[in-house]
Fold this sequence. Notes:
Layout: H1 6-10, H2 12-40, E1 43-44, E2 56-57, H3 61-75, H4 82-102, H5 106-127, H6 136-153, H7 159-178, H8 181-201, H9 210-227, H10 237-247, H11 249-264, H12 277-283, H13 288-312, H14 315-336, H15 344-351, H16 354-387, H17 396-416, H18 429-453, H19 461-492, E3 498-503, H20 507-518, E4 524-530, E5 540-541, E6 544-548, H21 553-559, E7 564-567, H22 574-586, E8 590-593
Parallel strand pairs: 3-4, 3-7, 4-6, 7-8
Antiparallel strand pairs: 1-2, 5-6
Helix pairs in contact: 2-3, 2-8, 3-4, 3-8, 3-9, 4-5, 4-9, 5-6, 6-9, 6-11, 7-8, 7-9, 7-13, 8-9, 10-13, 12-13, 13-14, 14-16, 14-19, 16-17, 16-19, 17-18, 18-19, 19-20
Amino acid sequence: MNFLSPWAKTHPSTLINxxxxxxxxxxxxxxxxxxxxxxxxxxxxxRAQRWHTRPTALFGGLALFGSCAIASFFFLPxxxxxWPLVVGGVLMFGAGLxxxxxxxxxxxxxxxxxxxxxxxxxxxxxxSPPQQTWLxxxxxxxxxxxxxxxxxxxxxxxxxxxxxxxxxxxxxxxxLHIGDAFVAVGGLIIAxxxxxxxxxxxxxxxxxxxxxxxxxxxxxxxGLSLASQTSLQSSNFVFALLLPVLVLAxxxxxxxxxxxxxxxxxxxxxxxxxxxxxxxxxxxxLSERRAVLxxxxxALWFGLLGIYGVTHExxxxxxxxxxxxxxxxxxxxxxxxxxxxxxxLEEDSERKRRGSRIxxxxxxxxxxxxxxxxxxxxxxxxxxxxxxxxxxFDHLSEMATTLPFVMVCxxxxxxxxxxxxxxxxxVTLSDLFVLGRTALIGCVxxxxxxxxxxxxxxxSTSVLVIFFLLLIASSGGFRLxxxxxxxxxxxxxKRDVKRVLVxxxxxxxxxxxxEMLLSAEAAFQPVGFxxxxxxxxxxxxxxxxxxxxxxxxLEMIARHRIDEVLIALTHxxxxxxxxxxxxxxxxxxxxxxxxxxxx
Length: 599
């Protein structure tokens, strides 16, 4: 229990009651709103631009707002942020409710968000001035950004509500650690209200919270993050911004991803659509629930990372891990951006536009370069932390001084050796050898540059060795990760495809399965191999198992609901192929022989 502050240890009943009160009131109020909205016809009807497929009750934000307001009245302690948060929250709720009723333009919504954010910042920082006043504009951008991020994330049943609950719980956990009563109770109230609403909002949702709930929730989360003990009031910039950015990483990522993809495709950023992270995961074959749970997992990971960093003050380690985690998220975003979320007519017209033509042509190389730069910085930081784990801050100056030379030398080696001319979706072992050789050249160039330009710094050889290994793991990892994502979704989540057995777990069979997994257009899903070699039984190729021998073919066709059998024998006899075709014919399953590389 050393994690908890003395205040948290002496006020457990306040914390439990605040959370429980918000949860119970939210459950009851949401049930009441569903009943009234359904009876009066206040329902959201399915539309082409929206995801839901059946009429669903509206105005769930009334229940969220009401439960937070009631619980706050009884349990929320006084603080300089109390009235700024309350008044701003009421303003955002009112604006969202008006938008749900009358549909405001995006410009008008931004004006109201700006007014609420200025209200909060002006009153709160007048009462509690920050030590670094130049960070106040960042607070304004942050607050408006979180409001819109939470609103944009409200695109699938239970997604925005659940992610907001996770973020509020992590903020409350940190506040319990430092003894900030206002943020702790406020976070638990928001989490309780969100979880109570989630009882009715999780897939299949019986109610939507609408803009009145999303804008209110986003403002409260952003305001609480600024009101926490470290936000913009600490002399440590990293300490001030680390936790909020990590705790709210999921809505931030979704907003940045959607904005970037829409910008590249020359579409309005604030326009509603079915092109969010969650939508694309479902288009790849995940169920709606599983897609939402994936994003819950992302929120949990970044929240745990942030809590570990600020409670242990391991900033350099957490920053390096955060950079590597964001590399993984960028790889996921790059993969999801290839999912066709717009209809073909729209895509054809978008490609003719100037923005799409310029950015789409070079976006892969730009993203590859950005990911490599991030990998270089994260790997260099981690190398110092691993080498000097007993006293990392003693070598912080050395790490910062040498970092620019590392960036120039290693990235220069990547650029000059033609790494960015490779098509990484088809990465093989030979490509990784090229990457390793290039990284080695960059490390040697770094050592020479430091010896020549920084003779007063004795750069440790072990740091360079660790850096080299980490750079291979991170830079090569994101390239392999992109290919692994294609394999994973093609193998497990394809829909409306033929289930295929491949007869022959040899070179030809491997090529056939690889093409099926790599091609997004291939209408096949490899279920398994059949091979007569006893040494290959229960082994797998590209994650596809050898299920049995020729004698078990009919059994496997029935057990796995096979639609077609592909004969892929490198040196097979005509008699064997003829026997397999005959067995397939007896059970009414299609069969054909693959004699070329393409399926």
